[in-house]
Amino acid sequence: MAREEVTLLGMWASPLALRIEWALKCKGIWYKCIDEDLLNKSQRLLTHNPIHKKIPVLLHGGKSIPESLVILEYIDETWKQNPLLPEDPYERAMARFWAKFVDEKCWTTIPGVFGNERGDEQEKSKEKAIEELRILEKQLEGKKFFGGESVGFLDIVCGWIAYWLPFIEDITGLKLVDETSFPALSAWFKAYLSVPWVKELLPPPDKLRAHLITFRQKLLSSRLLNI
């Protein structure tokens, strides 16, 4: 039987693309990853995601599936092994609810700290990010993973926080999460990043740090130009 071709249009430093790689690796699905140049978007990307023109995009069976949360659900429904979403309808709904919270709130506030160096504004961004991280902390109380005893849908959705946040803290000099204030979240960081298929796909730390520093400089320069 011929192996199905699965291709991911992504970018090595993209947390959203990494979500998809984690899900495919968890399912044991062979895939090919094409690294897109986001400053010079390929015709391939524009063709497969003409609406948003963004990564990630999953190509499977002659179809294009954009948007990371949509792709995660597609993967879970297409390949039934190692399910990501819970079986219970309520628990499935709650996993989707918190995934939406992470993408609508944390995805904005945490990078907001990173892209701001003005005193008052940076402090407000920090306080907002900590407030939202406390909400995630509460969801983890008494659990090893958001999915319970094993990695699930919400762990993969939140996974970028575990790896990217320490880089953001180091580069900005701001501390958002520590073991005293966030014991459950701190323990989850370690547990999630220790999962073999998670660890295997993490971007090289030195390369990612250099990329983030350059990215931040561009963000700050663009803000100055808009003053």
TrEMBL record:
Recorded catalytic reaction(s): these are: RX + glutathione = an S-substituted glutathione + a halide anion + H(+)
Q: What is this protein called?
A: glutathione transferase
Q: What class of enzyme is it?
A: transferase
Enzyme Commission number(s): 2.5.1.18
GO-annotated cellular components: cytoplasm
Entry's family note: Belongs to the GST superfamily.
Decide whether keyword Coiled coil is in the record.
no
UniProt domain GST C-terminal: residue ranges: 88-220
* GST N-terminal domain: residues covered: 4-83
One annotated GO biological process: glutathione metabolic process
Coiled coil start-end: none
Keyword Cytoplasm tagged: no
Domain of life according to the entry: Eukaryota
Keyword tags: Transferase
Q: GO MF terms on file?
A: glutathione transferase activity
Q: Which SUPFAM superfamilies match?
A: GST C-terminal domain-like, Thioredoxin-like
